[in-house]
Amino acid sequence: MQVVGREGFQQVSNGLQGIGQRCFLFGKVHTFSQKVNDAAKVRNNSCIYNFIDYFCAMESQNYCIAGRLRMLARVVTGLYNDAFTAEGVTFAQASLLMYIFPQPGVRQATLSKQLQIEKSAVSRDIQLMQRNGWITDNVRNGLFLTDEGTALAKRCHKIWKGLNQRVREELGTDAVDGLSLLSDKLLTKLPKE
């Protein structure tokens, strides 16, 4: 198995031999499931996160910014989803619980807007959390956590805090600060409704 740092992605993409080849990224092992003979095939379809495509493209000035951001989001979201598995929630559900906890009565539309999540996705997660008994049934008056939901939100916050620190250490302060600057810049340019 190859342990890959930022500089090692081109080497990995050029050196993969075939089925079962593995590499390590963000504390997770990725196994290639298809026989590969060259870097082009690797870039197109062999990794669950398709990260090779984006990191190989980083070698030039013509990489796709949206593609890189989506790839990074998939990898990091996967880490967070794995961390919350023990609690029986996804990262999206844990985020909603942690967001509702300090502001009881928040409306779904507000969550959707502030978190930049499609209204239908918020609605699906809210309905599931209601069925699980984490959110009260009467959402017309806003969203309120049940006692069970409050306890779960607190456990999720503890998990999130530890994982966030781990990811910060792995990425480095400069990268995390750069990401914060980028997101702040992009979010302030969104059209006002």
Textual characterization of the structure:
By secondary structure, the chain is mainly alpha-helical. The chain folds into 2 domains: 2-63, no CATH class; 84-188, Winged helix-like DNA-binding domain superfamily/Winged helix DNA-binding domain (Arc Repressor Mutant, subunit A, Orthogonal Bundle), CATH 1.10.10.10. The chain contains 9 helices and 3 strands; from the N terminus they run βαββαααααααα. It has helices spanning 9-15, 39-45, 51-57, 65-84, 91-100, 108-115, 119-131, 147-171, 173-188; strands spanning 2-3, 22-25, 28-31. Strands 1-2-3 form a 3-stranded mixed sheet, with no helix packed on it. α1 links the parallel β1 (2-3) and β2. α4 (65-84) crosses α8 and α5 (91-100) crosses α8 (147-171). Residues 1-24 and 30-54 have low confidence and may be disordered.
Chart the SSEs and their pairings.
Elements: E1 2-3, H1 9-15, E2 22-25, E3 28-31, H2 39-45, H3 51-57, H4 65-84, H5 91-100, H6 108-115, H7 119-131, H8 147-171, H9 173-188
Helix pairs in contact: 2-3, 4-8, 5-8, 6-7
